[in-house]
Amino acid sequence: MHSGEAQAPTAEALMRSRYAAFAVGDADYLLHSWHSSTRPARLRLDPGQRWTGLEIVATEQGGLFDSTGTVEFRAHYRDGVGAGSMTERSRFVREDGLWVYLDVDKP
C-alpha cells in the first residue's frame, strides 16, 4: 500500500495515509512520514488494536501552497477491551518539499 516517501499533496491527505498505515501496521511508512526533529527511533504498533474508522473534524491551512497545517481528527478502534475512539489535532509541516507529521497540537 505505502511505498517510498510520503508524497501527499495536502496535510489532510497525509493524515489519511498515516491513518491507513496505522490500520495495516506499516510502521516504516509512519516513520518516513514523520518530521526528522520529532521522529522516534522506532515505533511499536499494538497488534491487538484494530483501527475501524476515521473522521476529519477540521483542517487549518495544509493546502497545496501552504507550509504548515493542522488536521483535527477522530479515529475509531477496537481492542481487547472493546470499541473506543481518540481525538487529536495533528500538526504538519513541509520538510524538503514534502508534507510530514510534526506533532500533536497541545492547547
Automatic annotation (TrEMBL):
Annotated ranges, domain YchJ-like middle NTF2-like: 10-103
InterPro entries found in the cross-reference section: NTF2-like_dom_sf, YchJ-like_M
Coiled-coil segments: none
Organism domain of life: Bacteria
Protein name as catalogued: UPF0225 protein
